[in-house]
Amino acid sequence: MNQKQKSKIEVTLMYLVILITSIIIFYPLVWTVGMSLNQGTSLYSSSLIPENFSLEHYKWLFSEDSDYILWYKNSLIVSVAVAAGSVIITSLVAYAFSRFQFKGKKNALYIFLLLQMFPVMMAMVALYIFLNMIGMLDTLTGLILVYLGGQIPFNAWLVKGYFDTIPRELDEAAKIDGAGHLRVFWSVILPLAKPILAVVALFNFMMPLFDFLLPSIVLSSQDNYTLAVGLFNFINDRFANNFTRFAAGSILIAVPVATIYLFLQRYLISGLTAGGTKG
């Protein structure tokens, strides 16, 4: 077997793997879209390609009979607050660990690393009791605080590593010009760290939208439900048979994620360019 034949076989295998992976990824998505366009509410009567396309389920989600808009608003409030708060808190913590020397710094980093080894499930009972003690159980504020606290260890490590790659000579040059630590952080570090901060913002925006476990424990009243909890009740309630409405609601969740991704993609590219030029 010559080199040319080996190359063709390798390319064929690569395309085969891509094809299989694409089927695994897109088949459930196509089924969900098709189900949302089927008439009726039954799962078993739905088909991949609807015989009669209908948008009745999407219309119902935005009608007065549904709380979908309220759940959507709650999810966006939590996601935006967590994304913005995560960027602010994480960047400040990472800057302190990257640029300052203080007692206990090494141990604190080890603690951050250790905390990532334990699953969130282990803290559920403690979080429930803590929120109940401070009177923030069944509130969006309490849910936001839990998300903000839980993201610090991983994101601080991630952003701190990126800050370490930014030359300290830039800090020193700014200090010679009279800039203080806050000025250096705002005018030098943050512009060069746009790519990693965009990643932090995107991940922390997506997490509350798709998370079900934590909101289902913290939130109990229907007016405070997020999308994941609210949609789950479409098919979890006794005698509930709203699978097609559940599919329609699931499809609409992707809209803000796609929007924020396209928005941050521009900043990712511009941030990488600026970092390469200024560095």
From TrEMBL:
One Pfam match: BPD_transp_1
Keyword Zinc attached: no
Domain ABC transmembrane type-1 intervals: 72-264
GO BP terms, alphabetized: maltodextrin transmembrane transport
Keyword list, A-Z: Cell membrane, Membrane, Sugar transport, Transmembrane, Transmembrane helix, Transport
GO cellular component, one term: plasma membrane
Topology within the bilayer: Multi-pass membrane protein
Protein name (record): Carbohydrate ABC transporter membrane protein 2, CUT1 family (TC 3.A.1.1.-)
Native source species: Gracilibacillus orientalis
